[in-house]
Design goal:
Blueprint (H helix, E strand, L loop, with lengths): L1 H21 L14 E3 L5 H4 L2 E2 L2 E7 L5 H6 L1 H7 L2 E5 L1 E2 L4 E2 L2 E2 L4 E10 L7 E6 L5 E6 L2 E6 L17 E6 L4 E10 L6 E2 L4 E4 H35 L4 H20 L3 H5 L5 H26 L6 H20 L2 H4 L3 H24 L5 H22 L9 H86 L11 H28 L7 E4 H18 L3 E5 L6 E4 L1 H18 L5 E10 L2 E8 L10
Parallel strand pairs: 1-8, 17-19
Antiparallel strand pairs: 2-15, 3-4, 3-8, 5-14, 6-7, 8-13, 9-12, 9-15, 10-11, 10-13, 16-18, 19-20
Length: 618
């Protein structure tokens, strides 16, 4: 829960960083154009800053009206007016007088700006993007154009996305802005982004700030792309670095054609259809490659079936964009956006599972991806003109890159710490291992001597009964008994006793050799440990009480089944309890405890208040 709160707080900070630049004009009063007029007669541009030309613009559907026509016959022009279109906005789907406008067509927009009396200055406009062709006049002077505007789709010529800044000197207290716009290729005809109006110095500063931001973002993503690509070249096993470098390349292309337009400043114009496909295709590739990156890090949390579905659906959208005409492929943008959001939720779920499973670096990846997710939501709403913001996902990607770099730094730091620790402790560990080997060698020598003594004792033990058996047998062979040897005679009983003693010794030797060779015959069966141990403890209780030793059996009081060899197991418990009884003084205590079960195992322990086992004997 604490980690989740940290993530939420971090996302709040990121949101503030993202949103604040878009509301850089938040200290400006909420001044909007009303009925085609923006009243700035009481507004000081020099003190309060630039303003956005948002609000109601005069709208003339399917008519291309120039400034001269507006000035020649106001009454006739007003009769041609379709209504007012709120900018930023698009005409697609808008209704005027009960008529729903189509997606494609042409229109004229006009706005009048009232300035303070006698106000003269060098002014400027910052135009983000007007699709797909437009012409702009200020006070009757043509200042900007992109493509060829026409009411006929055959004669209209669309232009790739473009940003412009225009500058002019006002000669009157009222400024007239006229925009002719046509769109027969896209579904966002109109002015989807705000037009900024201010002093020329303010517009230039805004342009430079935007350029610095764009090139910083573009260059940072490029550097990290090359960095991760280099990591992959040096270590091919880390496939995640390859996927992430591809993701950075795709994000650079997406940002360079949709946000900053840096790519367009490098590449020549190939025609609107090809340029538009270049705009969209990076987005279609981004989704599967980012999921493959996540799966390469947390394979167990990303099922193969889900991966195949995401790659297959993304491939279908890519093929549609490649081979369908631009007018038709636009209709698949909404389904893809929905699919992309669904994949984001799958990634979040997978990363949460990785965090729960304790995967290394999963928390960092999750926090970074939540930034991408938030910026993707902003871009989703912005693409449908629901909010008026720039492209933010590349910024989210850059923030995620820093998270990724931090994760890599952590892994490298841990690896370096491990190397330093290993190298620093190497001599110490060598000394410890040498000491351990020396002690082990001494133990082996001791065991070898014990083994020698054991076999000497065994030889002596075997020699005695064999000698006692051999004597009578030699007497029989010499005819000393003359058939007087009877089954109940002392000689017969001596031979039988020594033979049995010899058999016992040989059986013990065979058991010893089997144990040493690991071939001891174990006869296992399932028994209830609780009554089994209780029976063993009962046989020791009287002996313990005779020495005033408190003997306690701490069982579970419920069935505990185990598969064991009862005879061997009983011998082992007997040995433990016998040693405990032997080395526990009078007035002491012995506890035989049964614990568990813990999974598929139980624990049986003997605890006494005796002298214990010396460390060198353990």
């Amino acid at each position: 829960m604490k980690k989740l709160l940290i993530i939420i707080q971090f996302l709040y900070v990121v949101l503030r960083i993202i949103i604040l630049p878009e509301f850089a004009y938040s200290d400006v009063p909420n001044i909007k154009a009303v009925n085609g007029v923006l009243d700035l007669s009481g507004y000081d541009l020099g003190k309060k800053g630039a303003i956005r030309l948002n609000g109601d613009w005069e709208f003339y559907w399917n008519k291309l009206i120039g400034p001269d026509e507006f000035n020649s016959g106001i009454t006739q022009i007003e009769q041609k007016r379709t209504g007012y279109l709120e900018l930023p906005g698009i005409w697609s789907g808008k209704s005027f007088g009960g008529q729903r406008l189509p997606e494609f067509g042409a229109a004229t927009l006009r706005l009048k700006i009232k300035l303070p009396a006698g106000y003269r200055a060098s002014l400027g406009l910052k135009i983000e993007d007007i699709q797909t062709a437009y012409r702009l006049w200020v006070d009757g002077k043509p200042l900007a154009q992109a493509g060829i505007v026409s009411t006929n789709s055959a004669s209209a010529l669309p232009s790739r996305r473009d940003k412009k800044e225009v500058y002019f000197e006002n000669e009157k207290d009222e400024i007239e802005i006229v925009i002719q716009n046509s769109d027969y290729e896209d579904w966002i005809g109109g002015v989807p982004y705000s037009i900024d109006f201010g002093l020329s110095g303010q517009i230039i500063k805004s342009k430079l700030d935007t350029a610095c931001y764009d090139y910083f973002l573009f260059g940072s993503l490029l550097i990290f792309c090359l960095y991760h690509l280099g990591l992959y070249v040096l270590r091919r096993k880390e496939i995640s670095n390859l996927y992430f470098s591809i993701y950075c390349i795709l994000m650079i292309l997406y940002f360079g054609t949709n946000g900053s337009l840096i790519i367009y400043s490098i590449l020549p114009e190939f025609g609107y259809s090809i340029d538009k496909k270049v705009d969209i295709l990076p987005l279609y590739f981004l989704v599967p490659f980012f999921f493959l990156f996540v799966r390469s890090l947390f394979r167990d949390e990303c099922p193969v079936l889900i991966t195949r579905i995401i790659v297959a659906v993304s491939s279908l959208f890519i093929l549609i964009e490649l081979f369908l005409p631009t007018k038709l492929s636009f209709y698949f943008l909404v389904p893809f956006d929905i699919f992309g959001l669904a994949v984001c939720f799958v990634i979040i779920y997978s990363l949460f599972r990785a965090v729960v499973h304790g995967r290394e670096g999963s928390m960092i990846i999750l926090a970074g991806f939540m930034v991408i997710f938030v910026t993707a939501i902003f871009d989703f709403f912005s693409s449908f003109i629901l909010i008026n913001t720039n492209i933010f996902m590349p910024l989210g990607a850059l923030i995620f890159v820093f998270f990724q770099a931090f994760g890599i730094s952590r892994r490298f730091t841990k690896a370096l710490d491990s190397v330093e620790e290993l190298s620093g402790d190497l001599s110490k560990k060598i000394e410890e291992k040498t000491s351990e080997l020396s002690k082990a060698n001494e133990k082996l020598q001791s065991l070898d001597r014990a083994k020698t003594r054991f076999f000497a004792n065994v030889s002596h033990e075997l020699r005695t009964p064999l000698t006692l058996i051999l004597g009578p047998l030699e007497g029989i062979a010499a005819g000393q008994y003359d058939g007087s040897l009877q089954s109940g005679s002392e000689t017969f009983r001596s031979v039988l006793s020594n033979t049995r003693r010899l058999l016992t010794l040989i059986t013990s030797l065979l058991d010893f050799s089997r144990i040493e060779a690991g071939r001891m015959d174990i006869k296992k069966r399932i028994i209830d440990l609780d009554p089994f141990l209780k029976r063993i403890s009962a046989s020791f209780k009287s002996a313990a009480e005779s020495r005033s030793i408190a003997f306690v059996y701490d069982g579970l009081g419920e069935p505990v089944s185990a598969e064991i060899d009862p005879a061997i197991f009983e011998k082992a418990v007997f040995n433990l309890l016998s040693n405990a009884l032997k080395f526990t003084p009078e007035g002491g205590s012995i506890i035989l405890r049964l614990e568990g079960p813990d999974g598929d195992s139980v624990k049986i322990s003997v605890k006494d208040s005796g002298i214990g086992i010396a460390s060198d004997k353990q």
